[in-house]
């Protein structure tokens, strides 16, 4: 007999705390950033999904969470599960991972949530960008997406690096544009090798980055013309 998937659910205190943090973060974000979001229609309305985003700055997980009406699960380094962040991280029900990868426990929990219909956010570059550009994606997400039988939702933003890079203690006021891309479905993944899937997501995120970087630049300097778009590719 086929085993029925168990839906992943959060406790009501976790759901309530997530909403509280989202409202608080939205107030902070609106105060600091001019944020524009494109492609909201590409968020899956239901079911599990692996959200793969580029990693420019410290505020990135919050930015992705603000752009999605559904609640997300986050991966967090095991080193964060201690004072003073331990209570916050645990209440958000984050998935602990190590620096080398998800680790066996982290992988099992990620798959459990994906199969249970949850959306999990990862940063496949593995670290924050040194210059704002998208680096090479690490292939670890491939096994997670395949085993979880979940679509991959690419998310790309520009401006987070300028607002809060990894070496800056506090954020600056800035302009951030976010683009949610067309998901790569589980059926599409079946027809691709691991190398092809890695290349597909890398190419898609680079194309999205060119688009969102241009839209951000255009919002800062409206005199930019379409012909100038080539300098952002």
UniProtKB/TrEMBL annotation:
InterPro entries: Plipid/glycerol_acylTrfase. SUPFAM superfamilies: Glycerol-3-phosphate (1)-acyltransferase. Keywords: Acyltransferase, Transferase. Pathway: Lipid metabolism. The keyword Acetylation does not apply. Transmembrane segments: none annotated. Signal peptide: none annotated. It comes from the Bacteria. Residues 49-160 form the Phospholipid/glycerol acyltransferase domain. One of its GO terms (biological process) is phosphatidic acid biosynthetic process. This is 1-acyl-sn-glycerol-3-phosphate acyltransferase.
């Amino acid at each position: 007999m086929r085993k029925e998937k168990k839906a992943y659910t959060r406790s009501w205190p976790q759901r309530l705390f997530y909403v509280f943090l989202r409202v608080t973060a939205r107030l902070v974000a609106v105060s600091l950033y001019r944020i524009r979001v494109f492609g909201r229609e590409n968020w899956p309305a239901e079911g599990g999904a692996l959200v793969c985003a580029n990693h420019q700055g410290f505020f990135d997980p919050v930015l992705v969470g603000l752009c999605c009406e559904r609640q997300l699960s986050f991966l967090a380094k095991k080193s964060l599960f201690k004072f003073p962040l331990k209570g916050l991280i645990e209440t958000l029900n984050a998935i602990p991972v190590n620096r080398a990868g998800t680790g066996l426990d982290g992988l099992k929990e990620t798959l459990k949530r994906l199969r249970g219909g949850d959306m999990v956010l990862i940063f496949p570059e593995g670290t924050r960008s040194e210059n704002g550009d998208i680096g090479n994606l690490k292939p670890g997400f491939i096994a997670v997406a395949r085993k979880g039988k979940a679509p991959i939702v690419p998310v790309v933003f520009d401006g987070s690096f300028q607002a809060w890079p990894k070496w800056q203690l506090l954020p600056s006021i800035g302009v951030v544009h976010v683009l949610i891309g067309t998901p790569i479905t589980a059926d599409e993944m079946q027809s691709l090798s691991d190398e092809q899937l890695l290349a597909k997501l890398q190419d898609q995120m680079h194309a999205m980055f060119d688009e969102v970087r241009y839209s951000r630049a255009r919002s800062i300097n409206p005199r930019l013309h379409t012909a100038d778009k080539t300098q952002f590719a």
